[in-house]
Amino acid sequence: MENIKSYIESGILELYVLGDLSMQEMAEVEQMAQLHPEIKAELAEIEKAMNNIANSLTVKPDLKVKAGFFNSISFSDEEEVGAAKAESNEGAKVIMMNSRKLNFYKFSLAACLALLLVSILAIINLNNNLKASKQQIAELQNSNQNFANKVNYLDQRVSSSEQALNVLSNPDYKMVKLNGTPNSPNSKLVIAFNAKEKKVILDLHNMDMPTNDEAHQYQLWALVDGKPVDLGLFDASDSKNAFVKDMKSIGVAQAFAVTLEPRGGSVNPTLDKMMVMGAI
Amino acid sequence: MIKTKKIFLEEAELIAAMQQRKKIGADALYEMYSGSLMGIVSRVISDTEIAQDVLQEALVKIWNSIQQYDASKGRLFTWMVNVTRNLAIDKVRSKDFRNHSKNQDLENHVNTIDELRNSVYKPELLGVKDLLEKLKPEQKIIVDMIYFKGYTHVEVADELAIPLGTVKTRLRMGIIELRKYFK
Q1: How far is A87 from chain B (nearest CA, A)?
Q2: A179 shares its domain with A275
Q3: CA of A6: which chain B residue's CA is closest?
Q4: Taking 70 as the threshold, does the pLDDT of residue B121 lie above it?
Q5: Are strands A216-224 and A199-203 parallel, antiparallel or unpaired?
Q6: Chain A contact present for B182, CB below 8 A
Q7: Would you say residue A87 has pLDDT above 60?
């Protein structure tokens, strides 16, 4: 007992409370406190005194210290609600996390599906627009083609008319009227003949000939010194496209005649199929 | 205990809350102890700004190293005071602090320590000053050097050129004297 008293009175317990002992000395004090309740009680008294001194020194720090402290540390119960609960109830925590994950996936799936639907609708819409555009282009091309055809046709007509006008206004042309033979009494045809330029032009506009079939064609002949000379082929339907038609050249002729020949023409005229004829 | 605006936890509850890193532990730590720990720091560092920085640092250190606290070795508050005091003393002894505040070199001014203390005392601490005044001068200087200046008892013995045993008994007598005023 004497030993314990002098141990207490040595002041080592105060140094222990103030944290001013080596590890070895601290271990010794702790061992002594375990063995002797008096020492333990004295330690508690010293602690109380030191704490009282400290408490009497209280100075309230600025609020920024609190903010700085709280900003520098992290809490277990801020992200996960009830971390302490989870410790005693692991199962519940796991279920909660799973359902949270599940919810996340549900939302993700829903979002993906919605996005897919919107995308499909957008694609359908675009596709429809594309089809409509293509159709419009086809229509435009078609009408453009029609227009070009019409222009071509008119162009032909205009050049043909010009040619006809040239023929009519040129005094070098002689108009030769070919009248119907007994084969076709109502037929008639006018030919413009320019001996100077060796030109023979058929007046399609005023032509009056029976329509020929696919197997036959009309053939124009010139009679030169009693011999027939081929001047080219034509159809009754040629009048649809032009006013006049250039035939083969010839500089001298006494008469013109038209026979109906097999398509492609003949070397010699089939005289019994002579439709019209006329002398200069 | 009465639940006022301040959060109050029993020591065991507070330790558990801090160990589990619950927010209420930090709240209680701050509400219950920031004032008295600030008092400790203020005794060591007169500059309020620096003292508050050190207090914040101490609170963070207490929070982060609570796992090292061993309840069988003493009260939580005692451990916190020691953590805080050591930080404050380290700060005062750091080169950075001396350059910054041009504080007196404490180790070379032991004899003028009373005057230094007087100049640093704050009005709200007058009670303690009075309390320390009740001690015999030879007790007061040792309590002051060890408790507030962070001297080890070995350093005090060296500095004052007195035997180690004498330092220890004077410290004990001084603290026993103070204990009377808190009865």
Answers
A1: 10
A2: yes
A3: B169
A4: no
A5: unpaired
A6: yes
A7: no
Range with the poorest average pLDDT among A95-109, B60-74, B127-141, B143-157: A95-109
ipTM exceeding 0.85, yes/no: no
What domains, with CATH codes, occur in chain B?
A: 1-103 (1.10.1740.10), 104-183 (1.10.10.10)
Which range marks the domain in which residue A227 is found?
A: 174-279
Which ranges in chain A belong to alpha helices (H)?
2-9, 12-17, 23-35, 37-56, 63-72, 83-88, 90-169
- C-alpha distances in angstroms, A111 versus A97, A106, B117? 21, 9, 70
Cβ within 8 Å, pair A48-B182: yes
Asked if A238 and A199 sit in the same domain, the reply is yes
Quick check: helix, strand or coil at residue A215? coil
Predicted pLDDT at B128: 60
Q: Does the pLDDT of residue B40 top 70, yes or no?
A: yes
Minimum CA–CA partner of A27 in chain B: B73
A261: three-class secondary structure by DSSP: strand
In contact, B59 and A69? CB cutoff 8 Å: yes
pLDDT at A79: 54
B183 token code pair: 């009865």
pLDDT, mean over chain A: 86
Of B30, B82, B167, the CB nearest to A19: B82
Residue of A17, A69, A72, A87 to mutate, interface with B, max B Cβ within 10 Å: A69
Does one domain contain both A114 and A165? yes
Give chain A positions within 8 Å (CB) of B128. 53, 56-57
In chain A, residues 6-35 whose CB comes closer than 8 Å to chain B = 9-20, 26, 30
Structure confidence by residue, pLDDT tens digits, A129-184: 999 999 999 999 999 999 999 999 898 888 888 888 888 888 888 889 999 988 88
